[in-house]
Amino acid sequence: MAAMPAGQAAGQQWSVRELARAGTASGIEFGRIRSLAVADDGRIFVLDMLASQVHVLSATGALERSIGRKGGGPGELSEGAAGVAVIGGRLVVMDAGNRRISVYRPDGAFVRSRPIDISIGVPVAWSALGDRLVYLARPMESLLGRIGEPVAYLVLAVDPFTDSPAQTLVRVSMPAGAEVSPGASVALRLDLRKPDLLLSGNGRDRLLLARTDTARVRVLETSGRTIRWIATSGGGRAYTGAEKARIRHLADSASRAGYLVGARAGARAAGAGATLPPPQSEVLVPERAPALTALLAGDRFLLVGQGDHLQRTPANWQVYGYDGKLLGSVRLPARLRPLALHGDRLYGVLLDELDVESVVILQLVARR
């Protein structure tokens, strides 16, 4: 299927206007916000990973209630709870730590849970799609295989209200980007040249899928059928030598820290006599920034973000219609992580200078 042209003109320069904010200034303390979802009546469901709760905010950002508590029992959430969606008027929570999807009424009453199979892939992105929950499952081989070997990412659709098997909508082959070689000295290799796979949905009838190494966005309908490719004007810039050194340092520190957390947990499980082998790491740094680093699907248009390995949450975004037409561009506030788009309302998490999180509601305005 041919790609839709992005258009010859650059489009309009859009702007944003803050409508509401919820956080410490309004008496709400968030721990670490992982995801949020917006209901048709404007209420906002905010998943706080540290609290293992979903905070329900009014359309203007006032706290109404908190749902769930930490644990593995009925209605409880793990620290691995990562995604929320609103489906059929119910709150649906993707709880990978408890290997299940849990459903609640908007008033907080627990309805049911259904299992998910983590062995076929760990959920890394999700969206409501009609009456189903769709998620991107990343196989463990992508982190523990051999660099460059192909592994299968799956886009799965599940019915949160039954225990029916998951349906595979899309299967995408991607190269593994990390490998661990055990021994007296554990060798860690991390390949940042490997592209990521991005997924976003508008909650109703459209799903977006894109690789970060291409400037094309795939638009799918609810059955998983591709109905269009949108060609964006993305194109990653070349990194300087200093930037590559900084990227290598940050990735090396993060990979070592992640390994030590897992190794310590394994040592505790193995008994007091277990010791930690010192890790040796190698980071393969790309020459250029990704073509795109973020996607956000709305009911009327979509946003495509362009960042780099030092600024994963981009400030510059392009606005496209679902027909592939470039509508314009918008620069978002620094340290804003956009999470949901409904109409002309953009919902996201804003970090202050102390890294304290707030939920903000912005209005996207197309300049005439």
Structure characterization notes:
With 368 residues, this protein is mainly beta. The protein has a single domain (3-267, 276-366), classed as TolB, C-terminal domain (Neuraminidase, 6 Propeller). It is 9% helix and 46% strand. The strands form six sheets. An eight-stranded mixed sheet has the order 22-23-24-25-2-28-27-26, with no helix packed on it. It has a five-stranded mixed sheet with strand order 1-20-19-18-17, with no helix packed on it. Strands 3-4-5-6 form a four-stranded antiparallel sheet, with no helix packed on it. The longest helix is centred in the C-terminal third of the chain and has 30 residues, at 241-270. It starts with a strand and ends with a strand.
In CATH terms, the superfamily is: TolB, C-terminal domain
- Indicate the proportion of strand residues: over 45%
Look at the structure and give the mean pLDDT: 88
Number of helices: 2
Q: Order of strands across the biggest sheet?
A: 22-23-24-25-2-28-27-26
From the 3D coordinates, which CATH architecture would you assign? 6 Propeller
End-to-end separation in angstroms reads 34 Å
Helix content: under 10%
**How many strand segments?**
28
Order of helices and strands: EEEEEEEEEEEEHEEEEEEEEHEEEEEEEE
Shape annotation:
globular
